[in-house]
């Protein structure tokens, strides 16, 4: 979307996106009206259409930005080493951190796909596939190197992604467990699930400590 | 729901439920109207209200029956032995088989909770908790017996349930893998995830063969 509306326009657009994510998560996309959304943001309904000519343009923007954000976060978190266990651990950490931060946006992205037009659905699914392919590559490299024991990289990738994304369904900050405790447990479960050779996580820990020290 | 309407009434009610599940899965609960549903079933809208006085009564019935069905299926599948690995394997098999058979109903049950009234939401969540508690008990027994290695039974139960239910998102009968191949892979992943002692699945296989022979 061209940002020719200057700084106030950008602020309004951001407020629209934020309010839309939370309204859609609460009511569902089909049930939310542009009128309701305008009222929530405190603008006229006509003003919304300047940013999002149709309601579906808005939904598509939310979903595309969610996936772009996820892929960017992974590009930034991706370790520079080739060790599959280290890469897998980084993928798990990034995936959980990203989704816990964006609980509503994740709900919208997972639940409202049916309301996208065919072409836009294809675009969003293509981005998802690209992201999941990264995980499949890690699993395949680990299996080929003999450090993971995986029957089917496709199935294992889906199982891990659904297990990790599922965190947003029950996790609430400030309850029994912190994000880092949850992440640590999911990391152990993931490493066992892929049959990571004993010691793989120790190597991982050492490499992470090194990487962290390097970026300080 | 009292079934005083006789056999034709029961058939209509079943047709309404079936059409509702598929319409809600496709359009979403909020977007579906009782008028559309009546047209789909081929009855007058007024006739629907004989079975379901409100739209929310219908949604609640679908969700309650989904959970009752799941709990009944597990009661029937529950092994008579105490061995945690055998019980866990039976839980996984039953969970995957039940949800693959009821893909639309599972979507409705997972995605439309927000449209239930507080009391009914509480009832549905209570049934879910009872079902998940069965899994937590298996994990705890396994951990206490030293055959599973589990950091947190609550987290592990949620991770397993979300990983298994996620099958319905991507699995389509007649594609690359059969239900039994998918189930076998999920079983291996589950056993590794809970750190099942080597040989636990062999015991499981032997016990299952015994149980199957016994019920023939």
From TrEMBL, chains A, B:
Q: Where's the DNA-binding part? A: 33-52
- On the tree of life, the source organism's domain of life is Bacteria
**Per UniProt, which keywords does this protein have?**
DNA-binding, Transcription, Transcription regulation
Residue intervals of the HTH tetR-type domain: 10-70
Taxonomic lineage per UniProt?
Bacteria, Pseudomonadati, Pseudomonadota, Alphaproteobacteria, Hyphomicrobiales
Q: Which Pfam families match?
A: TetR_C_24, TetR_N
Xref: PANTHER family: HTH-TYPE TRANSCRIPTIONAL REGULATOR BETI (PTHR30055:SF234), HTH-TYPE TRANSCRIPTIONAL REGULATOR RUTR (PTHR30055)
Keyword flag Transcription: yes
Q: Which GO terms describe its molecular function?
A: DNA-binding transcription factor activity; transcription cis-regulatory region binding
Which ranges form a coiled coil? none
Name this protein carries in UniProt: TetR family transcriptional regulator
Q: Does the keyword DNA-binding apply?
A: yes
